[in-house]
Structure formats: structure tokens, C-alpha cells
Amino acid sequence: MIAVAVSVAALLLVAPPDATHSARHPANVSAQAGQSSASAREAAYRANNLGVALLEQFKHAEGAEQFRRALKLDPQLALAHINLAVALYNVPDADAAARAAADAL
């Protein structure tokens, strides 16, 4: 009995949210669309944060890659556009930095 409880608890800790039966329930279908866009936005923020960490290590080209990844996930994330401009300026690629800054507007 204890082994079953531990196994179920372990499954809940490692199973992705969409693997649970409640996520497949018809009543939650509309909520899934919102979660999908919310999880994409969260992933975009994570990529942006990783890019910032890379900039702090003076890894400007690698940071720029993460900001581009963030923008693929959420093209409206103005913060990633601005950070991409900063990264590209420090690469240095002033023309691309200017384009990225303009995209933030």
C-alpha cells in the first residue's frame, strides 16, 4: 500500500500537466488553449532570463540566440526585443541592434 502511494506521488511530481486525466476532461478544453499560450509565454520569459544571464557573462552572441528563441515563442515580448538589441549591440552588430530596437516599438 505504501509503495503504491509513493509511486502515485512520484508520478504526480514528474508527470507533465497535460498527462493528468483532468486536463483531458471536456470541461477543461477551453482552459487548455489558455494554458497553452500561457506556457508559451512562460517559456519565452525563461529563454529571455537565460539570455540575460548569458549577457551578464559577456556571452553576447549566445544571449542573442536565447532572445531570438524567446521571440519565436512570444513575438510580442517587447522585453526580449530590447534585450536582443542590447546583445546585438555588444556582439557588435549595430545594424541588427537598431532593427531589434525598432521591433520593440
Please describe what this structure looks like.
With 105 residues, this protein is mainly alpha-helical. The protein is 79% helix and 0% strand. The protein contains 6 helices and no strands. The longest helix has 28 residues, at 29-56. The N and C termini lie far apart (59 Å). 18% of the residues are buried. Mean pLDDT is 79; it is low at 1-31.
Q: What is the helix content?
A: over 70%
Shape: flat
Overall pLDDT, averaged?
Answer: 79
Radius of gyration: 19 Å
**Based on the structure, what is the oligomeric state of the protein chains?**
single chain
Backbone structural class: mainly alpha
The end-to-end distance, rounded to whole angstroms, is: 59 Å
Short characterization:
The chain is mainly alpha-helical. 79% of the residues lie in helices and 0% in strands.
Give the SSE map.
Layout: H1 2-14, H2 21-24, H3 29-56, H4 60-73, H5 78-90, H6 94-104
Helix pairs in contact: 3-4, 3-5, 4-5, 5-6
